[in-house]
Amino acid sequence: MRNLIMIALLLVATSLKAHEFSTANLTLEQSSEGHHQGYIALSVSDLHHTLGLDPNKDGNLTWAELSQSHSIITEYLRKHLQFNTPNSSCPITFGSDISLLDSYGETLLKQPLNFNCTLPLTVHYTALFDSTSDHKLLINWSFEEGQTQTIIDKPAQHWEVETSSQSAWDTFLFYLYQGMIHIWIGLDHVLFVLTLLLHYVNKPRQTTSTPSRNTINLKSMIWLVTGFTIAHSITLTLTALDWISVSSKWAEVGIAISVAYSALNVVTHWIKRLMLMTVAFGLLHGLGFAGALSELGLSKSHQLTSIIGFNLGVEIGQIAIILVAIPLLLLLNKHEKVRKVLVPFVSIAIFLLGILWVWQRV
């Protein structure tokens, strides 16, 4: 039993750590032949940790302090972000009109930039890798012929930018990967799926002797997860195609409520028709996935491929979570004393975390 509890605590710790991935975004557009403009968005906390942007050392980084440190940031970027042709380098002009972006609870500094460079060219990016674990740069580049995307996740990695548009297959793989990453680092989505599964190891007492509380109805569990999949796929697709539009702020609030309520329902069993609750909340989670997809931007030349790839990536990521969780839940279900303590404890902890997210997001 002690080992079972240690496994559960390790999983919780791993999930919390998984939310701390560091991602920067480089979004560029070819506005004319040889001229490119856009912005790079980096985590303010990553920049603060790397560059020490708090001059008075009071632990509170203000907008004034961030603005005063603009020259430090741009000098750092000049050293760590470079565009080169085979024959020369392409000097970058950094704009002064910086701003802040909110990306799922993470504050990003949006730094405008532009440069003149003929294609083909090479992108070199080495910022934040030394000071931040699991750092990645997501590049989304629009050209007259189409669009291309890539990820730089190693400081020694260089990206060769060609004039041709990205193929449909490469676009599919890019968005597939992004869909998987989004659900894995999105702790709210992970915990909602976990609370759905916990309903099957903390069932209400039966009025008769059967069925046994020591069994898990895997068929019913699969149908429930399928309902969640269909629901969030619908709103993800409709939002990505601009057929519906919902404020990302309130979508995120709704997702936080869904996590809290589903966790509470594991203990209270207020809603016994789990499919209705799952589908309703699944529609909300689809809006959250769509928000992440909108930040990536759809490929202009392969729009439908982008949506399908991202959607399938989310599903693969979700299946991976379930495949890890089900054996542990089956093991937990065989130890009634541990289950009676651990399941309510985890459920209430998730409920409180969900309430905290609601408060933070409103």
Explain this structure.
By secondary structure, the chain is of the alpha+beta class. It folds into two domains: 22-165, no CATH class; 174-204 and 211-361. Helices cover 54% and strands 19% of the residues. The protein has helices at 2-18, 44-51, 63-68, 70-80, 168-185, 187-198, 218-240, 248-268, 274-296, 303-333, 336-361; strands at 22-32, 35-43, 81-84, 89-90, 92-94, 99-103, 106-116, 121-125, 135-142, 147-152, 158-161. The strands form two sheets. Strands 1, 2, 5, 6, 7, 9 and 10 form a seven-stranded mixed β-sheet that branches. Strands 4-3-8-11 form a four-stranded antiparallel β-sheet. The two termini are 40 Å apart.
What is the 3D shape?
Answer: globular
Estimated radius of gyration: 23 Å
Helicity range: 40-55%
Q: What count of structural domains?
A: 2
Q: In this structure, how is the largest beta sheet organized?
A: 7 strands, mixed
The chain-level structural class is alpha+beta
Strand elements, count: 11
Low-confidence sequence ranges: 1-20, 207-211
Cα separation of the termini: 40 Å
Mean pLDDT: 85
Distinct helical segment count: 11
- Could you tell me the strand content as a percent range? 15-25%
Order of helices and strands: HEEHHHEEEEEEEEEHHHHHHH
Task: Please summarize what this structure is.
This protein has helices spanning 2-18, 44-51, 63-68, 70-80, 168-185, 187-198, 218-240, 248-268, 274-296, 303-333, 336-361; strands at 22-32, 35-43, 81-84, 89-90, 92-94, 99-103, 106-116, 121-125, 135-142, 147-152, 158-161.
